[in-house]
Amino acid sequence: MIKKEKLVEGAKILRAGKLIEIVGLGNVFSGTYHVEKTPHSIGFGNSFRTAFVVKPRNSDDIAKLVKLANDTQTPLVPVSSGPPHFRGDSAPGTGGAVIVDLTKMKKVIRVDRAHRVAMVEPGVTFGELIPAVKKEGLRLNMPLLPRKSKSVVGSMLEREPVVMPKYHWDISDPLACVEVVFGNGEMFRTGQAAGPGTIEEQWAAGGAQKTPYGPGPAQWYRLIQGAQGTMGIVTWASLRCELLPKLEEPFVVGSPDLDKLFELVHWLVRLRLVNECLVLNNSNLAALVAKKWPGDYQDLKDSLPPWVLFFNVAGYDYFPEERVSSQIKGISDLTNRIGVEAERAVGRVSAAEMLKTVQRPSAEPYWKLRYRGACHDIFFITTYEKLEGQIGVMQELANEFGYPASDMGIYLQPIVQGANCHCEFNLFYDPENPSELNRVEELSSFAVTALMATGAFFSRPYGKSARMIVNRDAAYVEALTRVKEILDPNRVMNPGKLCF
Amino acid sequence: MAISKDVYKEFEDVVGAENISDDPVIKAAYRSPDLTVVLPGNTEEVAAVIKLCNKHKIPYKAQSTGWSFMPPTYDFIFLDLRRMNRIIEINEKNMYAVVEPYVISAELQGELFKRGMICNVKGAGSTCTALAMSGHGHMGLTTSTGDRNDLATEWVTDEGEIIRLGTLGASDEWFCGDGPGPSLRGILRGGGVITKQATKVYHWPGPSEYPLEGVSPRYTLGKKPSDLNMMVRYFSFPSIEKLVEAELKIGESEIAFELMGFCPSMVSSNITTSNEEDFATLDKFTKEVQGPGFMVIIAGNFDEDFAYKKKALAQIIKETDGKSLKTVEDPAVESTLLFQCTRVCASIRETFRAGGMFSSMMVQGQRYDNHVKWLEEGAVLKRELIKKGLVIADDGQQFGWGEEQGHLGHTEIFCRFNPYDEKSSKAVQEWLGKLGKRALDGCFAVPAMGVLPVDEIGKRVSNYHVWFGKLKKAFDPNEVGENTGYSYVGADISGVHTSIYKKEPEKASPKQ
Ligand SMILES: Cc1cc2nc3c(=O)[nH]c(=O)nc-3n(C[C@H](O)[C@H](O)[C@H](O)COP(=O)(O)OP(=O)(O)OC[C@H]3O[C@@H](n4cnc5c(N)ncnc54)[C@H](O)[C@@H]3O)c2cc1C
Q1: Residue A76 maps to which CATH number?
Q2: Does B20 fall in a domain?
Q3: A351 and A275: one domain?
Q4: Do residues B331 and B227 touch, judged by C-beta distance below 8 A?
Q5: Residue B384 belongs to some domain of the structure
Q6: Within a 10 A sphere around the Cβ of A388, how many other Cβ atoms?
Q7: φ, ψ for residue B460 (rounded to 5)?
Q8: By three-state DSSP, how is residue A380 classified?
Q9: pLDDT in tens, A398-409
Q10: Distance from residue B434's CA to the centre of ligand 1 (Å)
Q11: A238: containing domain
């Protein structure tokens, strides 16, 4: 994150002259980019000199900045969310970079109830968008308790998992269309937004920017997603929204038997019986709902079974009670067959409280930081039947490295309508304690390799291991590089990241 | 013969003498005088053949089933993938199936039905490849579309490189096609050959097989749909606005398995077995309907679910002044529509039977209501052609359907006509051109492929043709692959006039 950010002054104004011309004096800052002390950071604890931090006001500013970067061979690092940054993707991979901080671009451009779609600039956070779409009777399919400053666009570009697998048809959801300034400085719009006509003309013709694929045979948005800012800068994105239910009935199922829980998850998602649907271990669930620290946390955790499945049954405009009761009938047939019980509360955690919690961004401080002050996440995509083995590998490694496995948070999120499962290990640690930090760092790099050997797929690799993960398949890297050469031939966009 | 004996021999060495031919009879069957047909048996052979094409700068084209067969006149190596016909895996727990190109949807669906599952089937019918590729079809409300169903994929590029997307490259598994990092699914449909692909599959609440009775062409289902917790209805509405309202409410309330916006002529051609019967039935339907309509299939996962869905549907239809077409309420007709529109086996009846040919303007992805005004204009123009006797008199209506519970959709209007009647063909072509131009001028949509030159469209659509051209050049430096700029796997029209880098056949010809 930027420490000691201050407006440019004195001799620096001269050096920043062109940047100031583009975004105005009040939007150019100088400062040292200090990489968070996290195991993801490349050379954590180091400070990179960034040339400047600029805060563009609109897409025009962005286009000019990218052009300038090409003319002067200056690396650009786009950042949409406010601090803290955990994954190191927004830490410059080289010195002398200009950070393009998009947090000032905060317009909710449109919310369209009829088409169930919203369009936002990259600085818009979940905390800001949720009420804006709610006013229109809509809601977001969003990640689990994003931090307050997390950009909606940033989250979608990272292909973060979302909590309602039923509405997660494709791994790219809920992203619809984007406007992007590619690394070569040219502006492009993807999907239905591409044209014909301007966005306003499309609206006037009754259209919405909803269809993600195209124009033409390519699916451009897929090349921008997951790219960690290496292809271009997104100036707005549209996203599909879901209807606000008229009635919701949340449940929890506690069990020591993950296999059984996932048998249930499979059928809940397959039959599309539930909206929110996710599994947490006792550490994570306690961390999520604990109000008083640390006493409350431990009591809560002690009251919980090892695993808790949370799901929510919803009714919409037509006979919501009847819909919910018919779904619940289907669910009880399943739970009876599988031999688990869906309840209103488990231990000291109620399903109703969980529902409220998962439909909002995290309260401050960010839930992952409450326990020990910092958290390192190891996450990947997998399938249900591999989970037990992979969790076993991780627990064993944690214990081996002197990190108590029982302290580790685990979050399992079915995605892509049940075709995949996002598996996330949360290693809570004290950032001020160098030996803890080292331990987590070592554990993390061992774990990534060990988990890969079990078929864990690191589709969104960050930090130190990213290069190793991406570079495993030479043909794939070669193909990505060709795409990169088209979109960012001078390699000004976030150099040093992924395989670029 | 388009290629020299020596070069022929090189290809023969890859696939074996029994899997290559330039026999005039075989070439005639593929409708092109210039090609050499090659039948690779596996991915490595596909890659080796394409590498040879690059070496000798010979253009190639692949086909999975050849359903949309339109051989460009300047293709020389024709990769017929019919030997690659295995269902490699059906993974019930993780809801995907892995197939090779010549597995057709009917086969995959047959296997899936036994497991209580179903795949998306292209509107073209279940005789098309089961690869996800493109493909928008009747069941899109529940089973999404090809563009969004593909998971891990094995792909041979136009240079003959084998690229394994997602988990396939990482751990030899099929469950995810994206990453690490950006997803190359973004460029899959731009060229090369897909040799294996995992496609998402979905829950199927229906029977494990349809107990058909009768003989071709008049099969019936031995069971009443209601005995299967299923129901098929056709509703007509007093106006397009009411229809759209009903369609959206059905999508939003998540009660339908399928919503197919058939116009009456499509229902009549589906359930009849000859043109005479078709036109008589259409006549009857046209008198019975009050306006535009759609067919909807409700499927209950269990009794209470079925009851709820029917009740919600009845309420929506009441609120939107819909009227049920009595003919379809007859269980015999209802059951015919049920198996035809879930097995998706009637597209020939709908498209080719009446006139011998059809030409279509369609928009895939965007919702029906976005285009209805524009396609209504198309319907008015089409009625003029009907009046002049140039196309089949089917009342001229457009149709469409919802995808992903109405988040997305498909809209289409087509003319059926006699392709041997020059006046008809020309009139239909002009009609398409006018509609395409209106699509651009009215900012409605990107017109269907092949209707207008690609650069005319591209400059109005973020210059995508220029970007796509760059992708093509990067991945196909020798220009041996598909070169229409429109071509996308699964739905392709190759007109020389739409080529983004126009190649002179002579220049590209390796004739020696
Ligand atoms: C009557 C009719 C109705 C139709 N209705 C619809 C509809 O409702 N919705 C819809 O989406 N489409 C429709 N289509 C188009 C349809 O999608 C395609 O015809 C279908 O997907 C072709 O399937 P195929 O791959 O088996 O055919 P093919 O003819 O084998 O292939 C089609 C195209 O894909 C390329 N291709 C084939 N296999 C591969 C491969 N393995 N790797 C790379 N490229 C390959 C071919 O070169 C060709 O360009 C219709 C077509 C017809 C004729």
Answers
A1: 3.30.43.10
A2: yes
A3: yes
A4: no
A5: no
A6: 13
A7: -95, -5
A8: strand
A9: 999 999 999 999
A10: 25
A11: 108-243
| Paired sense of beta strands A345-346 and A349-350, if any | antiparallel
Which pLDDT score is estimated for A9?
Answer: 67
**Do B61 and B129 belong to one domain?**
no
Closest-approach residue (CA) in chain B for A274? B254
Q: How many CB pairs (< 8 A) connect A and B?
A: 294
Q: Please state, in angstroms and as integers, the Cα–Cα distance from residue B222 to each residue in B57, B126, B206, B210, B342, following that order.
A: 56, 21, 14, 8, 16
Same domain, A237 and A259: no
pLDDT at B364: 86
| B151 and B135 part of one domain | yes
Residue A278 maps to a domain: yes
User: If pLDDT is split at 50, 70 and 90, which confidence band does A4 have?
Assistant: low
- For residues B286-298, give the mean pLDDT: 94
Residue B298 has pLDDT above 90, yes or no: yes
User: How close, in Å, is residue A14 to chain B by CA atoms?
Assistant: 37
Q: Do A266 and B93 touch (CB under 8 A)?
A: yes
Q: Give yes or no: residues B114 and B173 share one domain.
A: yes
| Interface touch B373/A194, C-beta < 8 Å | no
**CA A173 to CA A213: how far, in whole Å?**
12
Our mutation pick for probing the ligand 1 site, out of B133, B188, B348, counting the most ligand atoms within 8 A of Cβ, is B133
* Residue ranges of B 185-244 with Cβ closer than 8 A to chain A: 185-190, 200, 202-203
Q: pLDDT at position B504, please?
A: 42
Q: In chain A, which residue's Cα lies nearest the Cα of B97?
A: A419
Residue of B nearest to A381 (CA): B176
Q: Which residues of A147-157 are buried (b: 16+ CB within 10 A; e: fewer)?
A: bbbbbbbbbbb
The mean pLDDT of A339-366, rounded to a whole number, is 96
Domain interval for residue B317? 213-354
Q: How far is residue A224's CA from residue A61's CA, in Å, rounded to a whole number? A: 20
Q: What CATH code is carried by the domain that includes residue A162?
A: 3.30.465.10
Query: What is the sign of the dihedral through the CA atoms of B446, B449, B453 and B454?
Result: positive
Q: How many domains does chain B have?
A: 4
Q: Which residue has the higher pLDDT, A471 or B37?
A: B37
| Ligand 1 atom at shortest distance from the alpha carbon of B195 | 41
Do residues B111 and B87 make contact, with C-beta atoms less than 8 angstroms apart? yes
**pTM for the model:** 0.95
List the CATH number of the domain containing A371: 3.40.462.10
Query: Could you tell me if B349 and B218 lie in one domain?
Result: yes
Q: Are residues B342 and B310 in the same domain?
A: yes
Query: Of A352-366, B124-138, B413-427, where does mean pLDDT reach its minimum?
Result: B124-138
When pLDDT is averaged across residues B480-489 and rounded to a whole number, the result is 55
For residues B499 and B450, give the distance between their C-alpha atoms in angstroms, rounded to a whole number.
9
B509: in domain = no
Q: What SS3 state is found at B174? A: coil
Q: Are residues A238 and A257 in the same domain?
A: no
Q: pLDDT band for A471, please (50, 70, 90 cuts).
A: confident
Identify whether B55 is part of a domain. Answer: yes
Nearest to B94 among A218, A271, A384 (CB): A384
Q: Give the domain-ending residue among A191, A215, A243.
A: A243
pLDDT higher at A425 or B464: A425
When pLDDT is cut at 50, 70 and 90, the band that residue B490 belongs to is very low
pLDDT tens track for B5-23: 999 999 999 999 999 999 9
Kindly indicate the confidence band of residue B483, based on its pLDDT and cuts at 50, 70 and 90: low
Question: Tens of pLDDT along B305-328?
Answer: 999 999 999 999 999 999 999 999
